[in-house]
Amino acid sequence: MKNTIQKGTTVMPKVKVYVRNNQKDVKVPTGIRLLIRKCCQAVLKTEGFDKDAEVSVSFVSNDDIKSLNKMYRDKDRVTDVLSFPLSDDGRYDINNETGMCLLGDVVISLQTAMSQAEMYGHSLEREIGFLTVHSMLHLLGYDHETSPLDETIMMEKQEEILESLGISRDSTFTENKETV
Asked: Which of 32, 47, 89, 143 has the lowest CB atom count within 10 Å?
């Protein structure tokens, strides 16, 4: 059921995003925490998630994300982002203090995100936005590894959401500053 004030007026559900920096390798750029919150809100709005929600986003070192990847996915390598959904077939635990749905945890290697932004030729904001949106979709039950169709659906949703935030693939390439 959606929250309403008066007939025809809908209030967006509240989204509490906890952002923690648990690494010392890279300084968290100004504005990244706000970007992450906007990405989380945009995903929930696009998906029609109509309940108040909480999500945790943590920045970790490459060593830490490699350990988590090994522990939880049996993949002994560094990755850019991991998602830990707390739902069971669309049902979420509720925080007894806040009444909010607990969506889960997102873990991002800021060092890997910076490397990927450079490799793909776009801004760090685009990369962090992409990783956040990607993980939020996982928290809501999307899985690109189940089939090529599921991968296509997830990729299209990611780009739609990033476009709505003004950080689409086409608008975020950085200029090559090399001189000849």
From this structure: 89
Which of 10-24, 66-80, 100-114 has the weakest average pLDDT? 10-24
CATH number at residue 15: 3.40.390.30
Q: Does residue 178 lie in a domain region?
A: no
45: phi > 0 → left, psi -120 to 50 → alpha, else beta; which? Answer: alpha
Q: Which helix (H) or strand (E) holds 102?
A: strand 101-109
Judged by DSSP in three states, 96 sits in coil
Is 124's pLDDT higher than 50? yes
- 22 belongs to a structural domain: yes
Total domains in the chain come to 1
CA distance 86 to 105: 8
Residue that the structure tokens 């300084």 belong to? 27
Q: Which residue has the higher pLDDT, 167 or 56?
A: 56
Distance CA 35, CA 130 (A): 11
